[in-house]
Specification:
By secondary structure, the chain is of the alpha/beta class. The protein has 3 helices and 7 strands; from the N terminus they run E-H-E-E-E-E-H-H-E-E. The strands form 3 sheets. A 3-stranded mixed β-sheet has the order 5-6-7, with no helix packed on it. Strands 1-4 form a two-stranded parallel sheet. Strands 2-3 form a two-stranded antiparallel sheet. The protein is globular and about 40 Å long. The two termini are 13 Å apart. The mean pLDDT is 90.
């Protein structure tokens, strides 16, 4: 699994597509190991490269994973149905007062990102958290009867 929080940075909240393509997507698409530099949000710096070996499935998790430039490389796009305000409140609780100013900037940047490049309409599956766990249902992009429940090959 690759968390997009490891790819983004304070200076590039959403402008990290080229770095992700170069460090991760292109090497994996060629069956080669990838290596990406993980961002440390407290130190405000990228660390040494971390390996990401090829695998039949690699989960790319985070806001922006369904952006236009990445969709051709995705086997499936899942959209977590969660009100924005609730997601932002969770992030603020997680990061504490130390990151309060960051979250003010994040909210504006996320709104601008999704206004220019919405992901939800392209989701094949919608995921909702329930009291018992998670509920998965077809998303806006899932054609009835498409049956694409598995990847098309065993390769990366």
């Amino acid at each position: 699994m690759l968390h997009l929080d490891d790819i983004a940075s304070h200076e590039q909240l959403f402008d990290w597509t080229d770095r992700l393509l170069a460090q991760v997507i292109r090497p994996l698409a060629q069956g080669e190991p990838a290596a990406y530099s993980r961002y440390d949000w407290r130190a405000r710096a990228f660390g040494p490269p971390r390996p990401l070996p090829p695998a039949p499935v690699i989960l790319l998790e985070g806001v922006g994973a369904g952006r236009r430039a990445l969709r051709p490389h995705l086997a499936e796009l899942l959209w977590m149905e969660l009100p924005r305000e609730e997601a932002w409140a969770r992030g603020r609780r997680r990061d504490g007062a130390e990151q309060h100013a960051f979250w003010d900037g994040w909210v504006a940047a996320e709104r601008a990102h999704f206004a220019a490049d919405p992901s939800r309409p392209h989701a094949g599956l919608l995921v909702r958290q329930t009291a018992e766990g998670y509920e998965v249902s077809p998303g806006p992009a899932r054609r009835p009867g498409s049956g694409q429940d598995v990847t098309l090959s065993d390769g990366p």
